[in-house]
Inverse folding.
């Protein structure tokens, strides 16, 4: 399966296969993964009338910097965690896709500063993306698996789901809400960091929303706490805290190289193993707080 035309030339550090330390990995990600969002001046969008709906500035120029941030995975293990208050105490909170807060405040909190959504959620009839109030809180950021080449024209002509059509429709209905689209290059730069640091061959598909959102927050915040991405003692086959559906693949990955993403995050964790065990909590430093 190589739907996106991945051409992996082998590790950047050719010949060197020793395992990088946590700080070395953090530096690689800081230096080699660029957070870029689409702006109206980028081709081929610049020639299209709706390009003016895109935010004129980069997300990193518009938002933050925040001191403390929480990344809330949607894992079933958040259920009965009682983490709501701790999560809400952060300056900014990112949630993913269709993850609700209403009715789940005790475990996941109620603050939503950003919501990262994939194009599948934007397009699927089940999620009522255009009309549901779930998406109206906070800043929206969307993504769709682009080609490995990260060529915007190629992507525009062949998205996985109709991200641009849905973006335009949403913007017409909710003009005031900030709404960014990630440049697909970021997905693949991050994918390369994962593959370069694994001995095994990983899935040739982009990383999960959870990891994309974590790296986005590392560029906006001084400290990032990620909840239940690395599962705690509450680990369960329940896919999401908000749905009665079980599948271990939600936690370990099938389409996404999720197991490898988690391995990488574990290696970068500055917090204790106890924090993972009890809170499913990982501590990552923001990119501005360390030099490479
Ligand atoms: O399923 P969904 O992509 O909406 O979930 C948001 C993110 O939370 C995932 O992209 C993944 O990174 C993380 N997640 C997880 N374990 C689960 C469910 C979600 O790590 N069981």
């Amino acid at each position: 399966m190589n739907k996106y035309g991945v051409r992996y030339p082998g590790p950047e550090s050719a010949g060197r296969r020793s395992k990088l330390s946590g700080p070395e990995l953090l530096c690689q990600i800081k230096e080699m993964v660029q957070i870029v969002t689409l702006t109206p001046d980028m081709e081929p969008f610049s020639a299209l009338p709706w390009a003016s709906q895109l935010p004129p500035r980069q997300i990193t120029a518009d938002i933050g910097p925040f001191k403390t941030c929480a990344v809330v995975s949607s894992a079933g293990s958040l259920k009965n965690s009682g983490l709501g208050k701790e999560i809400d105490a952060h300056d900014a909170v990112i949630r993913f896709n269709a993850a609700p807060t209403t009715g789940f405040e005790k475990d996941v909190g109620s603050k939503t500063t950003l919501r990262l959504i994939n194009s599948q959620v934007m397009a699927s009839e089940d999620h009522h993306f255009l009309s549901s109030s779930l998406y109206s809180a906070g800043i929206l950021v969307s993504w769709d698996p682009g080609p490995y080449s990260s060529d915007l024209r190629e992507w525009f002509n062949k998205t996985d789901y109709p991200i641009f059509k849905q973006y335009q429709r949403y913007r017409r209905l909710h003009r005031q809400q900030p709404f960014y689209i990630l440049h697909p290059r970021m997905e693949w730069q991050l994918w390369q960091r994962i593959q370069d640091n694994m001995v095994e061959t990983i899935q040739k598909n982009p990383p999960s929303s959870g990891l994309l959102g974590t790296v986005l927050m590392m560029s906006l915040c001084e400290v990032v706490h990620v909840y239940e991405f690395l599962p705690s003692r509450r680990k369960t086959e329940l896919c999401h805290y908000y749905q009665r559906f079980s599948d271990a693949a939600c936690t370990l990955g099938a389409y996404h190289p999720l197991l490898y993403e988690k391995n990488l995050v574990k290696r970068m964790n500055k917090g204790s193993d106890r924090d993972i065990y009890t809170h499913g909590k990982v501590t990552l430093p923001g990119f501005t707080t360390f030099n490479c």
Remarks:
- DSSP finds twelve helices and seven strands in the chain.
- The first strand starts at residue 66 and ends at 72.
- Residues 22-287 form a domain with the sialyltransferase cstii, chain A fold (CATH 3.90.1480.20).
- The chain has one domain: 22-287.
